[in-house]
Amino acid sequence: QVQLVESGGGLVQAGGSLRLSCAASGRTFGTSQMAWFRQAPGKEREFVAAIRWSEETTTYADSVKGRFTISRDYAKVTVYLQMNSLKPEDTAVYYCYALRSGYNYWGQGTQVTVSP
Questions:
Q1: What is the distance between the alpha carbons of residues 79 and 23, in angstroms, rounded to a whole number?
Q2: Which helix (H) or strand (E) is 23 found in, with range?
Q3: Which of 40, 92, 103, 105 has the largest count of CB atoms under 10 Å?
Q4: Residue 102, CB-side half-sphere exposure with 13 Å CA sphere
Q5: pLDDT per position as a tens digit, 72-99
Q6: What is the pLDDT of residues 43-55, one digit of tens each?
Q7: What's the rounded Cα separation, in Å, for the pair 34 and 106?
């Protein structure tokens, strides 16, 4: 089992920045990928960014390219999402995700609200 705990959400004005963190614990050895997803009210959960744990290769949704950066701390087993130039449409609950040995793990989510 892998436990994921997100932090760093909050309220910010448009154009501002936030940094989300996701700390993984438990049986984290063998985790191949971690990612961030988000879900806005009335919408389906959507992919935001992902990072391959060993290679550190990253992928992003088109809507956040150039504004968001995903990174990881190997020793702390923590993944980060630096969000800059935030827009009201970025408002959502952000979920951390981990893939380990074919199993999917999710965090509880953290609210990000961007005011106009």
A1: 7
A2: strand 18-26
A3: 92
A4: 0
A5: 999 999 999 999 999 999 999 999 999 9
A6: 999 999 999 999 8
A7: 10
